[in-house]
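Exercise 7. Predict the structure of tRNA N6-adenosine threonylcarbamoyltransferase from Nitrosomonas stercoris.
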Amino acid sequence: MLVLGIETSCDETGVALYDTQQGLLGHTLHSQINMHRDYGGVVPELASRDHIRQVLPLIAQLFEQTKTSLHAIDAIAYTQGPGLAGALLTGASIGNALAFAHNIPALPIHHLEGHLLSPLLSDPAPTFPFAALLVSGGHTQLMRVTDIGQYELLGETVDDAAGEAFDKTAKLLGLDYPGGSLLAELATQGQPKRFKLPRPMLHSHDLNFSFSGLKTAAALLINKQEMDAQTRADVALAFEEAITDVLVKKSVTALKTTGLQQLVVAGGVGANSRLRQKLQHQLVDTAVTVFFPELEFCTDNGAMIALAGALRLQQLNTLPPPANGSFTVKA
Ligand code: KG4
Ligand code: ZN
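Solution. The predicted structure, encoded as tokens:
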């Protein structure tokens, strides 16, 4: 079965074709980052208008690349949410319209399900069950993933998401939007241990996170210092060390408490090299294997939506839909 995936939840227009036999056939992406940069964040109305401009040409380009056409597609998966309302509406309208015109199912996919399943695009891929650390601009969650549609929330942020904390701290350091990867780059120039920032909820007896206090502590530190280039890098490093320490500690605790032996790291912050290094280091002498999606599949993309749609479709064709899954799907 061949599924076209459409992702338009925020500032990337992504489309992809996933085949249940052959895997990912192709994917294309248009990023709006340059358009939003001048405003210091995503402008929702501009995002929706740009998705409208980009999505059909991207689909045409994808068909050309993969030498296929809409007639060969068995279903269209689109990001249902969460995300910006107007941006989501664009993908949903186009997905539903194309599916209606071709008399095939339209599959609404939860954006986080796309991120959660994205490591299945890589080789080697994890097998069910696995633990997942989902760290994006809007979410920070630890999940137990037992099967397609069977996701148990183990813990989550009680305030800011990890990506949001990266972006807000990056802004305080004068970096462009979205600042997560720029802050990480700046941190590579930082002197270790010059500053120490708090590691919120590191010792709380649960799997929840809190990052708004860390961001405030970074803001206070920045306000107290003469911010020359070296100091900016030192603050960036102190921030990155603090946030990654918390993400690593809670992930390790989740693995210990669930007994799961595979950890998947998904979402944009999963691209962070320091987080990857620390997790690998912490788990090197254990039986746990860590899976990181390729960098292009960490941030928003159409491939993860096409994949989730294909797996959902396969499941609908073989099994009754899960009764207790966190995410629902209508076909
Ligand atoms: O998953 P994603 O593309 O979009 C959402 O669903 O939110 O994640 C975007 C987030 C942004 O906050 C961005 O700054 C962060 O991921 N990010 C990073 C890195 N690359 C992207 N944060 C830290 N280090 C990175 N290398
Ligand atoms: Zn995302």
